[in-house]
Amino acid sequence: MNIVSRKLIFIILSAAVLVTGCTKKPKRPDPSATVLGQGAGFNGALNPIDVSTTMDPMSGLEQRDAGFDMNGQMRGVLESVYFDFDKSSIKTSERGKLEAAAKYLKDNPTHRLLLEGHCDWRGTAEYNLGLGDRRASAAKQFLGTLGVSADKLETLSKGSLEAVKDADKGTAAKDRRVELVVVK
Hints:
Strand 3, helix 4 (125-145) and strand 4 (153-159) form a beta-alpha-beta unit. The protein has helices at 3-20, 35-38, 95-107, 125-145, 169-175, and strands at residues 73-74, 81-82, 112-118, 153-159, 177-183.
């Protein structure tokens, strides 16, 4: 078979596929005929009484603790610890935040803390990752002096990954921090 006849067969088969096309799209049901449409209350809103609030243990869905996200983390419960420019030492004014975190861990023995070290936009990415690690490690060490077990603490350096580039002094000061993230 020569090349011209192969091309002709290919074109004929392609045309046949295009002409026959896909099957017809299914018809969408009328919204009033759906489950939500039938039980809808005022202005199409669901009646809260009709919605089941109990979870079927056989449903395969796992129950999560209130406040935790899909990653098992809870942010904003504890205040961030802020640092001076290019420093990893914990300021006297910030120590109360770590003392509150130690108390939180004592009151919630099943929780742990992820200490995320952050930096402002100045400096190289490598330097800022190292500085973020030093800041997180300083917070971990301080919590250790307060009696918090090392197995309750994890450190992570984000460096300047989340920093605002070319930020003013006030914004850059907020980027120099260790976030205290509660973890299950």
